[in-house]
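User: Here's a protein and a ligand (manganese (III) ion). What would the complex look like?
Assistant: Let me lay out the input and then the predicted complex.
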Amino acid sequence: MTFDLPDLPYEYDALEPHVSAKTLRVHHGKHHQGYVDGVNEALGTTGKKRLTLEQVILEAAGRSSEQSLFDKAAQSWNHAFFWNCMTPDGGGEPEGELARHIDMDFDGYDKFRAAFKSAATGLFGSGWTWLVIDNGQLRVKTTANAMLPMVQGQHALLTCDVWEHAYYLDYQNERGKFVDAFLDHLVNWDFVASQFEQQLENLDRARRRRQDARADFAHLAFANEGAR
Ligand code: MN3
């Protein structure tokens, strides 16, 4: 099978003025297309034609002989996910259960926002900034180049592309202004919430396990105290 470039979930000019149509045309039509073409070319010479994109990524990850396939497959996945993370008139604070978990794990939306911006602007070189579920908790992280959370055992909820090609035509060297626009005007919280809700049951189970472990520890400490 060959992989196709997924359509953008909106028109090329839909994210203006925050991301220009020119940026989106090049980013989707040239960069993303190039990664998808690269996967198809690479798979043409191997026996992996029936794998999903996720399977290609996980199989190629960590194998030096498949670094180039990994990079193109991971970038194909990252960009498809990134387009869904944005919407016209998005951004601002999320609502509902997701908001409650952001409050719990970051001590409020403002601290989440500061952590995400600081990670995005602090990443040296090319890569991605993510909100992930990591070991039962929400966490902000960055990855270099094409790396992505699924390879590291985490669930991606939100990503921002901070490769220069994502913002240079619109913001030149000012990555921070792009990240501000992303957070305040573009984040598709409905999409993020849909990713989050798929994981909510696992998340609540992990939280209960941690609470049970603490309760067991407290009980054990009390029993030891009584045995002295
Ligand atoms: Mn990109």
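Summary: DSSP finds eight helices and three strands in the chain.
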